[in-house]
Write a structure and sequence with these properties.
This protein is an alpha+beta fold. The chain has 8 helices and 5 strands. The protein has 2 domains: 57 residues; 155 residues, OmpA-like domain (60s Ribosomal Protein L30, Chain: A, 2-Layer Sandwich). α4 packs antiparallel against α6. It is elongated.
Length: 243
């Protein structure tokens, strides 16, 4: 009788054990929903903070909830320069593929002033010189084909690192950068046949670097020729450069 009573008690306890698992599950679900709710509240607060900051910076309405069924269109998407930038970037990428050139030596950027094609000096000039490499002709011809389809003015900028030119070449980086810009413009107009009245040439020497001149990689990035496709200013500015 004693054994039977003990077995009956154990069966009774086993039948109620599922309540413990059920209670644990309910507790976990409660914790889960509390965490999800807190995250959603934090994201909403961040969203409002970012929206207010951008509106204050650019004096435009952004990140607003659109009407039902309407896609969000950012101010950048409304900027006609974005379409031109994407077109130029795609054409430059196609040109580099055809010529088998390293894309790390060419970069296309959208700035408030216009579209900038950054060309490494390794593609165009021997070190410390302003005479075009023979292999630079195909690259500049391809760039000229892109520019020919655009009505914009073009400014060609020469840039160097902070290392002085080799003795006996140019007095300083000012003159080297100017000569490289002029030689590039001469090729695009005299050889490729673009209208010279669209172009200007300027040299900045080492004074507008893109990277830190204290490293080899930084100096390599700073030695460049920039082809600036000057864009008409629009009512809504872009939020900084895009690469």
């Amino acid at each position: 009788m004693l054994r039977r009573g003990k077995r009956h008690a154990e069966e009774h306890e086993n039948l109620e054990r599922w309540l413990i698992t059920y209670a644990d599950l309910i507790t976990l679900l409660l914790v889960f929903f509390v965490v999800m709710y807190s995250i959603s509240k934090a994201d909403a607060a961040k969203f409002r903070a970012v929206s207010a900051s951008i509106r204050a910076a650019f004096n435009i309405d952004v990140l607003q909830q659109p009407p039902a069924g309407q896609r969000i269109t950012s101010p950048l998407e409304q900027d006609p320069r974005l379409t031109a930038y994407l077109g130029v970037r795609a054409q430059v990428a196609s040109l580099l593929t055809r010529l088998g050139l390293d894309r790390q030596n060419v970069d296309v950027e959208l700035t408030p002033e216009g579209i900038v094609i950054h060309l490494s000096d390794d593609l165009l000039f021997p070190p410390g010189q302003a005479q075009l490499r023979p292999e630079a002709a195909k690259l500049l011809d391809g760039i000229a084909g892109i520019l020919a389809a655009l009505p914009n003015e073009v400014r060609v900028e020469g840039h160097t690192d902070n290392i002085p030119p080799p003795p006996g070449s140019y007095p300083d980086n000012w003159e080297l950068s100017v000569m490289r810009a002029v030689v590039t413009v001469r090729y695009l107009t005299d050889v490729s046949g673009l209208r010279p009245e669209r172009f200007s040439a300027v040299g900045y020497g080492p004074y507008r670097p893109r990277a830190d001149n204290s490293t080899l990689e930084g100096r390599r990035k700073n030695r460049r020729v920039d082809i600036v496709i000057v864009q008409p200013m629009t009512a809504q500015p872009t939020a900084g450069p895009i690469s």
